[in-house]
Design a protein that fits this description.
Elements: H1 6-16, E1 50-51, E2 57-58, E3 61-64, H2 91-103, E4 109-113, H3 120-137, E5 143-147, H4 154-163, E6 166-168, H5 176-182, H6 188-211, E7 223-229, H7 236-250, E8 254-259, H8 277-292, H9 297-302, H10 316-323, E9 330-331, H11 337-340, H12 348-357, H13 365-369, H14 375-378, E10 382-383, H15 398-402
Parallel strand pairs: 3-4, 4-5, 5-6, 6-7, 7-8, 9-10
Antiparallel strand pairs: 1-2
Helix pairs in contact: 2-3, 3-4, 4-6, 7-8
Length: about 425
């Protein structure tokens, strides 16, 4: 059989990596090449086609070490029984690609994952060796995100944190029963055990860095995970509850959601079609509510409908507000920050601007309108110096009034 070229391998393994959503770098420690030492730099902002606070799009090489795998997870295109074209990089090849692409200004770092080849330990050794070559042999100071393997020896998983800015251990599915049915080679307790070990090591490293100036850095950007949505029967309420427990128990930086995508030669136990992408978007919105708006997991779950799923036509913040209208209207000139954050249409930045502006004058509805994209969404839920919603908040058709209008696209529209 003909040996594949580097470019052919890259085509196969970069395409195979596209199903992994958990590749952002927010929170990484700042490093640079000032003084002419080292290669690469990172400024603690999103990578892998994420957007930095100043609007820049930052990217990284996102690739698998190999798409060979001894596991047979039903939802994975690279599973053992899948009929896909296979390829494999050596650690040196990935390191060379990373350096070459960096020098051409194509990327600012590396996101590296892998199928399981030979054994979990062997694969984890190869992942760590790639990062070691970059860090120790080439003094690479760009961003590195390693996907770790929970079935591997804990010491190998620990080594990944010594070289990587961020590590991720995927929980794969929202429920233990779903994992047992769709990923028979994986164990939920083992996955959470590995996440717990990583959390302890990250916390210990932070303590040591405060005490000892030259203490080793360890996964300064923390750890993340990913859940596949729509491959099993888990509801959005189940997913929100799982995400909340993961944040609380393991101090995760992010939980990523990836809508299940039908794959070639799919297993008969999988759904025939993917869930709507808007469902994935609603889960990210609910995640935002818990992380930045002060909503408790139970409150986000209250925004779900009878089937336990978040509504698709409106965002979860508006869904909660419509269910708990007694909380509104909120006086924009007197309400606390916590109450203002509950108003649909008001973002975190807008709330802080309102708090600052009302120290100097009484705010009118027009003033609030300058701080939000849609004043129509805000009007039923707040009081301003010149505005009271009267019966608007209690209208039976308020949801229909506020839901985004569905438009049929025209085939030949200009």
């Amino acid at each position: 059989m003909r040996e594949l070229s580097i470019l052919e391998k890259l085509e196969i393994l970069a395409d195979a990596a596209k199903y992994d959503a958990s590749c952002a770098s927010s929170g990484t420690a700042k490093k640079n090449s000032i003084g002419g030492k080292g290669i690469g730099s990172t400024e603690g902002m999103g990578i892998c086609h994420a957007y930095a606070p100043d609007g820049r799009c930052i990217s990284l090489l996102k690739v698998l070490l190999t798409n060979h795998c001894i596991f047979d997870c039903h939802y994975c295109i690279n599973r053992k029984s899948s009929n896909v074209r296979r390829a494999r990089f050596t650690p040196q090849e990935v390191a060379d690609l990373t350096l070459n692409f960096y020098r051409r200004n194509y990327i600012e770092g590396l996101f590296l994952s892998s199928g399981i080849i030979r054994s979990s330990n062997h694969t984890m050794e190869q992942l760590v060796e790639t990062a070691r070559i970059l860090r120790e042999e080439h003094d690479f100071r760009g961003y590195i995100h390693l996907k770790t393997i929970p079935e591997a020896d804990p010491e190998l998983v620990h080594q990944a944190g010594l070289f990587a800015d961020r590590v991720s251990i995927n929980v794969e599915l929202p429920t233990d029963s779903g994992l047992t049915r769709l990923a028979p080679d994986k164990d939920a307790r083992q996955i959470e055990g590995a996440m717990g070990g990583m959390k302890s090591a990250i916390v210990q490293a932070k303590v040591e860095r405060k005490t000892f100036k030259h203490a080793l850095r360890f996964a300064p950007a923390g750890q993340s995970t990913q859940m596949i949505i729509g491959a099993d029967s888990a509801s959005d309420a189940d997913i929100v509850g799982k995400a909340s427990r993961l944040y609380d128990n393991f101090r995760l930086r992010r939980v990523y959601y990836s809508a299940f995508s039908p794959i070639p030669d799919a297993s008969a136990v999988l759904p025939l079609k993917r869930p709507p992408l808007i469902r994935e978007h609603r889960l990210y919105q609910s995640d935002w509510l818990m992380r930045f708006y002060g909503y408790k997991p139970g409150e986000v779950m209250q925004a779900t409908e009878a089937d336990g799923n978040l509504p698709l036509d409106i965002d979860p913040k508006l869904a909660w507000a419509l269910k708990f209208r007694e909380f509104f209207p909120v006086d924009v000139n007197r309400a606390s920050k916590e109450r203002l954050l509950r108003v649909p249409g008001l973002g975190v930045k807008a709330v802080y601007k309102i708090l600052a502006a009302r120290r100097h004058k009484s705010l009118r509805l027009e003033d609030v309108g300058k701080l939000t994209v849609s004043i129509a969404k805000v009007r039923p839920f707040l009081i301003a110096s010149d505005w009271r919603p009267v019966a608007l908040t209690d209208r039976a058709d308020l949801r229909a009034l506020l839901a985004p209008k569905q438009e049929q696209l025209e085939l030949f529209a200009a």
